[in-house]
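Archive entry: two folds, one per protein. Generate the first.
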Amino acid sequence: MPPKTAPLLQGTLELIVLQFLRAEPTNGYDLTLRIQATSNDVLNVNAGSLYPALYRLEARGLITFAWQATENGRQAKVYSLTRAGTKELAEQRESWLRFSGALTAILKVT
């Protein structure tokens, strides 16, 4: 049976985007494919969610972009993390790890 897709928890998409951009700069389309592949098809982010998140991150100075030619000769925005984005990612990761650890402890209660 194929894995079920899961809805993203509020606030997690920006953390996911920052984490992937930490690894390497990428365009929006490739970002959606990487999220889907890495999550084993559990997370499926559509353009209607991803691009507003990218615009919010850009407006906050956490990511930047450069136009680059794709393999088929088109121009695509390739996003990368800024120094402020790296700092924000570290803070969000720490917060998420505390939260998920607490939730894991609660879910182990019998």
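Generate the second and append.
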Amino acid sequence: MDVTRFDEARRYDAPKHFDMRSLRLQGFDASASEFAWVGLSHFLPGGGAEMDASPLEKIYVVLEGEITVELVEGEIQVLTAMDSCFIPGGESRAISNKGNSVASMLVVMPYPEAAA
């Protein structure tokens, strides 16, 4: 078993994200997980991620605050504490924290094939 203590979790930078800090909770250098990795993202008010697509599917679970997820087709969903969503691989999305409080969410993703 690999345990990651919160106070020992390492920061990582997510491309195309702004006003956000992330911690790696599982996978990559945090554990020996081979099927997926888990990150914890804290979005400051006004923070988010640019509209972008990844070939990998992802799951978001909002823990605190509100996260707005916008799809390129115009669909907008506001997720609050304990709401979650699944984004299929190849689907473009933007993320934003439009509130005045920090919003936190878990991100669960498979590894890119090259990193697995």
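Annotation attached to the second fold: The two ends are 19 Å apart (CA to CA). The chain has one domain: 9-109.
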